[in-house]
Amino acid sequence: MWRGLYVAASGMITETKRTDTLANNLANADTAGFKRDVAVNSEFEPMLLRRINDTDPRKDITAIKRFRLGLGDPSVGTLGLGSYIAEIATDHEQGSFQTTGNPYDIGISGRGFLAVATDNGVRYTRDGALFRSGTGVLQNMRGQNVLGQNGQPITIPANARTVTFAPQGQVYADGVQVGQLMFVEFGPDRRAILKEGGNLWNPRPDAQAMPATGEIQQGVLERSNSNVVSEMVELINNQRIYEAGSKAVITQDSLLDKVINEVSRL
């Protein structure tokens, strides 16, 4: 009974973490360039149960039916020992594009990240909502400088009438190139760069930066790939699983109460 209590409790903890993941996806359903997360659960190694009180082979039905064959106590089956969240994986599926008409808005089609300067160093993002600051520096909506290939901020001339972004990140002002975005991707696998918060990504120490294979589109923003309807359905299903686990805990607790307060009196 104690084991059943812990198994049910581990399931509730698992669903609590899944709820947090789903809630974060819903909260960022309108965040440009956001990639939804998926809570991947796993199961603890199950335990093999055997009968241990079969001392008399003549009374053992499994021996009569030739189930044991002298291999020890007969197997009853396996018992699950609970579940846990093995990984919070990121879904890198392409988000849809929303046309804004703003020449400073750029969307990334395919793989790739833009580099920005933060208080913690260089970080990366797919949020292409940019603007020209009062000093002419290209920044994102958080006021972070967008970096060029040389690791320095990109400056747009004050008298520039038209600003154009080429598919590979070249920046033109009135037809003259004024910079090249640091437009990169990381390998060798998708976990080479991980979420840090604030719609920013931080590459792992062993990550290999390489020119992005994606393309930049001007005048659009990549929307979040989190779907509100599907996330809500998952949230409802998650709540039902959590309630089932809580009922199992209550049942186990009731059985333990009877064992301690009633059966023990006998």
Question: What can you tell me about this protein's structure?
Answer:
It contains three helices and 19 strands. The chain has 266 residues and is α+β, with helices and mostly antiparallel strands. Strands 8-7-14-17 form a four-stranded antiparallel β-sheet, with no helix packed on it. A hairpin with a 2-residue loop joins strand 7 (113-118) and strand 8 (121-125).
Are there runs of 5+ residues with pLDDT below 50, and where? none
Quaternary structure type: single chain
Secondary structure class reads: alpha+beta
Report helical residue fraction: 10-25%
Task: Summarize the helix and strand pattern as letters.
Answer: HEEHEEEEEEEEEEEEEEEEEH
Which strand-content bin applies to the residues? 25-35%
Number of strands: 19
Strand count, sense and closure of the main sheet? 4 strands, antiparallel
Task: Tell me the radius of gyration.
Answer: 29 Å
Major sheet: order of its strands? 8-7-14-17
Cα separation of the termini: 19 Å
Give the number of helices: 3
Q: Tell me, briefly, the overall form.
A: elongated
Q: Can you give the mean pLDDT?
A: 87
